[in-house]
Specification:
Radius of gyration: 18 Å
Strand content: under 5%
Domain Fatty acid hydroxylase: 3-151
Number of strands: 0
Protein name: Sterol desaturase family protein
InterPro entries: Fatty_acid_hydroxylase
Structural class: mainly alpha
Transmembrane segments: 50-76, 82-103
Largest sheet: none
Keywords: Membrane, Transmembrane, Transmembrane helix
Order of helices and strands: HHHHHHHHH
């Protein structure tokens, strides 16, 4: 289980940094996939429907990771390879993922918070509202990975750093045609009002 926790912490960081923050695709269908997976959450960070990782991302990762770990354990000759894979992925990994979803949700809600939740909220707000290229972790303790990878911001640097332009659209102009098309496509599904969509297009 500790291996599963550590692996999921790395999964969380790498998926967020290297997949969810890919440069915006030119093709609208690919852009729409990333918009639903993550861009839309930055565009409308308080929309509850866009808080969570979609099942079409989470389930293939779960199955793929399970089969990978099971296969490696079997190749290494462990008799209990199935149980090892179960402990690492569905137990350690999934429990850590559910913890991530909890802390991510509370970071975006105005609710009473524990000291740990307040800490996560403070760092995650820097990612959303100061610099989207920093603080990719959300789970408690994940800041160790950001520091190791050079994607943290220290307190003094943060005081001097200007807010990145167009931060809610990950550096894209708010009226980019791809954004306009994605907002129109997903507005009904996620309860975005015409006023919210128009305000987002103005930046």
């Amino acid at each position: 289980m500790p291996l599963g926790i550590a692996a999921q912490m790395l999964n969380e960081y790498n998926l967020h940094r290297h997949v969810f923050h890919l440069d915006p695709p030119k093709r609208q269908w690919a852009f729409d996939l990333l918009y639903r997976a993550h861009y839309g959450h930055h565009d409308f960070p308080t929309n509850h429907g866009l808080f969570f990782v979609p099942l079409w991302v989470a389930l293939p990762m779960l199955v793929g990771n399970f089969l990978l770990v099971w296969g490696i354990a079997a190749l290494l000759g462990f008799d209990a390879s199935l149980w090892i894979a179960t402990a690492i992925v569905p137990l350690g990994g999934v429990l850590t993922f559910l913890g991530y979803e909890w802390f991510h949700m509370t970071a975006h809600l105005t609710v009473p918070k524990t000291a740990v939740e307040r800490h996560v909220t403070r760092l995650h707000n820097q990612h959303h509202f100061r610099d989207f290229n920093k603080w990719f972790h959300v789970s408690p303790g994940g800041e160790i990975i950001d520091r190791a990878m050079g994607t943290d911001i220290d307190t003094e640097a943060l005081k001097q750093q200007q807010r990145i332009a167009f931060i809610r659209t990950l550096g894209m102009k708010p009226d980019d045609p791809r954004l306009l098309a994605a907002r129109a496509k997903f507005a009904g599904r996620y309860g975005l009002s015409e006023a919210e969509v128009a305000r987002a297009a103005r930046g």
